[in-house]
Design brief:
alpha+beta, 5-stranded antiparallel β-sheet, 4-stranded antiparallel β-sheet, 426 residues, iron
Length: 426
Amino acid sequence: MPDQSLSQVRTPDAPAAEPGARASGVSRRALLGTAGATGLVLGAAGGAVGYAAAPAGATPLTALGSGRAMFHGKHQPGITEGLQARGHLVAFDLVAGAGRKEAAALLRRWSTTAERLMAGEPAPHDDTDVARDAGPSSLTVTFGFGHGFFGKTGLEKQRPAALDPLPDFSSDRLDKSRSDGDLWVQIGADDALVAFHALRAIQKDAGSAARVRWQMNGFNRSPGATAHPMTARNLMGQLDGTGNPKPSDADFEKRVFVPASGEPAWMANGSYAVVRRIRMLLDDWEKLSTTAQEQVIGRRKADGAPLSGGAETTPMDLEKADAKGDYLVPLNAHARITRPDRNGGAAMLRRPFSYHDGIDADGTPDAGLLFICWQADPLRGFVPVQRKLDRGDALSPFIRHEASGLFAVPGGAAKGEYVGQRLLEG
């Protein structure tokens, strides 16, 4: 779980109710017209803006539904937006006999559905009414291609070299049935019903072309739950993601997205997503004292400040020692090992969800992190950092990697296009 942070980003749009909106109840579109003036400070697309604190110290609930991310754009949604309260990850495999033609039709259906749902509109057909009366709730739907997709569609020559399978790591205890997949969909929203509605619509749209390989559910703190915007906490209680690259960084695009002139051409402005289901061994972790936990991470638990002193965003002083000559940030501390300047500049944009899938028969919680990181090249982003963690991270005894996937996520679709069109029709 590399030590990198994320700022909240939202895109403004509060369309008024349209003619023909449903007469019963308050329609999703009508809600947007009334909720737009309720106190969310929204940034322009690609900006880094936090939620404004409402007078009572939290975002009004009526504003949660009005947040809207845009489907069309340079990049797909769900990458630079802030952490969302509810998430679903789902991977599909193309069925036997389904090839390039069927995949193109599927991505066209999915893109149409995603565009409508992200605008707060019903699914284009057979809508379930699950999200009736709700606004878009900052819904994002993101699509990616796995390694096996290219062989099944006859597009092997278009498979990126960066999509080669990840190497094995010593902390891996991978369940192959919950790893990889031909197609990957990430769904995020600030309302659980809106997120489920999108998941159900995407599943139904798969029709006879693809079947679900695996599906995972995640969550984060809801916007407005804290008095001011702050880095999220994971289920270990730690601030998780303090050193994330930010859109305001001069090299942000270079680190996270494939350049417009990159190869293959269909991946221009796209990114690569590494997805890992990381189980946290919470019973063992919670036996440690707060001081011991802080030594494992290298940061104070209360405020995320480095053990070398300062505040959360204070640069970590790796050479600072105590009176005995011991480093204040231990040599095997997680935050020390994952620093980009200790990994040849390797960096990735982390955008995870926590998960809890129940309690085992022995009382052990099945809980942890759905780790999602974005980078222009996983061989220069995720892989070198994970290899270094493998060699002596103090956090390793308290986590277990149980599922893994790597997906090529193409750039955003232009108006009138569907995601992946440049690959499938190029």
